[in-house]
Description:
Elements: H1 2-26, E1 39-43, E2 46-51, E3 65-71, E4 77-85, E5 91-98, E6 101-102, E7 104-109, E8 115-122, E9 125-133, E10 139-145, E11 151-157, E12 163-166, E13 169-176, E14 179-186, E15 189-198, E16 205-212, E17 215-221, E18 227-228
Antiparallel strand pairs: 1-2, 2-3, 3-4, 4-5, 5-6, 5-7, 7-8, 8-9, 9-10, 10-11, 11-12, 12-13, 13-14, 14-15, 15-16, 16-17, 17-18
Organism: Hymenobacter cavernae
Signal peptide: 1-21
Keywords: Signal
Amino acid sequence: MRYRLVLLGFILISWATSGQAQQRKASPAAAVANIRDCYRIAGKDSIAFFYSTTYLLTPAGCAAIRRHVRFDSTRVFKGFVRDYWMHNNLLALSGAYRGGKKEGVFELYHRTGELAARGHYHEGRQVGDWAYWYPSGKPRQVLSFGAGGEPMVQQFWNEAGQQLVRAGNGTWYRDEDEMRWGGTVVNGIPDGRWRLQRLTGKKDLVASEKYSKGHFRNGIDIGTGEIYLDQSRISLNDWEDYSTAESFKLGPPCPPVAAPKQE
Length: 263
């Protein structure tokens, strides 16, 4: 058992050394955490990784999420994985990996312990119908994932319980960071003009995008006047940050603790 623990530690340290060097080379001005502060060996081939809310590796002292998982010599997750909210030790995610890819049922949870999303993965891709809920426990939406990987909106409800999309047709939106992104859905896919708008102050328009029969046509950033034609910059899918964990990106170090004021 001691050999396995030492070997696992060596794998992590060698991976971390090369990973940190590459990340610092890519952005020399950005301070990043030391990988050695972002994990703990839990036993045998088990590891506890510490993450921010966006699943950047973070020192344990300022982490929001703790992941318990097995980690093999090829530097990928394997078997069952469980994530916990650090502030209350409630489950944040449960699922499994096969060959380094997500496989089977995945469940995501709000900070309060309420179920946030449930669906299936196959070979690392979301498949079939995924259901989502608000922190109150009320249903939010049902998305359908086909072979192309892009979701189709089947059903959508607002927080009051009013159904706004039925059988793929209606109005969809998402509120995030005091912004609302939304528009018309036809046969499960965006159609017409979609808008990103502030929810506070003058409720200014921030950006807009145009779709035709589900195909992105163009978008504009109102603040800069930039017009983009390459691809949409918003996603219908909620709760996607957890996939960042697989890339082992380092976040910033913990912020310094403010010294107590002298009386």
